[in-house]
């Protein structure tokens, strides 16, 4: 377990890291059955799951899927996966997605790819959420990965100042950076919003921070996913282990 992304398994090659992501995706795919309604996550690890799911679909598996980003939609369409929307399919059986960090309580930081709002909406519409990750994403305390916060473009600077005040009230002090797509060009989410990356460091009370950020009018949503993940598939050098409960029933 690491307090910094990449601290564990520092000798892991780029190839083996991708192999571990794929191993976690393959393990999660074992729970997918005929007729399921699935949420498809975004990011490099989720892309492995979508790729493997596409192979199963070509073999005859029938599922209906809701993507969490336009990039995931394009990948799934290219693989012949049947797609829907949450308006057409408002309740899902399972969402499979990656994470930028997770802790032992199944709390997550997500949003490194900028799709946190749709990822959270889709996860909340699902009976279960499986997170797939390599072992470097496991931390004792969330916060080494800067926390993404999605904000409305109107009054963005004012909203950033409000975020700073809220964080300071919880003893969290660190730079807030407006995310750029490239130098001089703001990153815009699929929903048309900005992303602020908050380098607070260790977040000792993630639940309190989540609640206070959600109360800020200019905040659309934040990358703290609390109470959504039911199981995390963690791929390491010794194989895949599962944190949580794949059935979704109370332990």
UniProtKB/TrEMBL annotation:
One of its GO terms (biological process) is pentose-phosphate shunt, non-oxidative branch. The keyword Transmembrane does not apply. Signal peptide: none annotated. It holds the Pfam family Rib_5-P_isom_A. The keyword Isomerase applies. Keywords: Isomerase. One of its GO terms (molecular function) is ribose-5-phosphate isomerase activity. It catalyses: aldehydo-D-ribose 5-phosphate = D-ribulose 5-phosphate. Pathway: Carbohydrate degradation; pentose phosphate pathway; D-ribose 5-phosphate from D-ribulose 5-phosphate (non-oxidative stage): step 1/1. The active site is at 119 (proton acceptor). Substrate binds at residues 42-45, 97-100, 110-113, 137. Gene3D superfamilies: 3.30.70.260, 3.40.50.1360. CDD domains: RPI_A (cd01398). Its EC number is 5.3.1.6. Homodimer. Catalyzes the reversible conversion of ribose-5-phosphate to ribulose 5-phosphate. Belongs to the ribose 5-phosphate isomerase family. This is Ribose-5-phosphate isomerase A. It comes from Methylocystis hirsuta. The gene is rpiA.
């Amino acid at each position: 377990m690491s307090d910094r992304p990449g601290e564990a398994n520092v000798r892991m090659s780029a190839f083996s890291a991708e192999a571990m992501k794929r191993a976690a995706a393959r393990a999660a795919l074992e729970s997918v059955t005929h007729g399921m309604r699935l949420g498809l996550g975004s990011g490099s690890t989720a892309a492995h799951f979508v790729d493997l799911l596409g192979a199963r679909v070509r073999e005859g598996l029938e599922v209906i899927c809701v993507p969490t980003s336009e990039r995931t939609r394009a990948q799934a369409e290219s693989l012949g996966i049947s797609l829907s929307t949450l308006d057409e399919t408002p309740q899902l059986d399972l969402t499979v997605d990656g994470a930028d960090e997770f802790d032992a309580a199944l709390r997550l930081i997500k949003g490194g790819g900028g799709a946190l709002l749709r990822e959270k909406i889709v996860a909340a519409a699902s009976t279960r959420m499986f997170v797939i990750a390599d072992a470097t994403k496991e931390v004792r305390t969330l916060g080494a990965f800067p926390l993404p916060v999605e904000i409305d473009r109107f009054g963005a600077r004012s909203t950033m100042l409000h975020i700073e005040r809220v964080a300071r009230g919880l003893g969290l002090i660190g730079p807030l950076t407006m995310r750029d797509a490239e130098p001089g060009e703001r990153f815009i989410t699929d929903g048309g919003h900005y992303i602020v990356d908050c380098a607070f460091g260790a977040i000792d009370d993630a639940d309190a921070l989540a609640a206070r950020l959600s109360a800020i009018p200019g905040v659309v949503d934040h990358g703290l996913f609390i109470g959504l993940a039911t199981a995390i598939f963690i791929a390491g050098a010794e194989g895949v282990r599962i944190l949580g409960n794949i059935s979704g029933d109370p332990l």
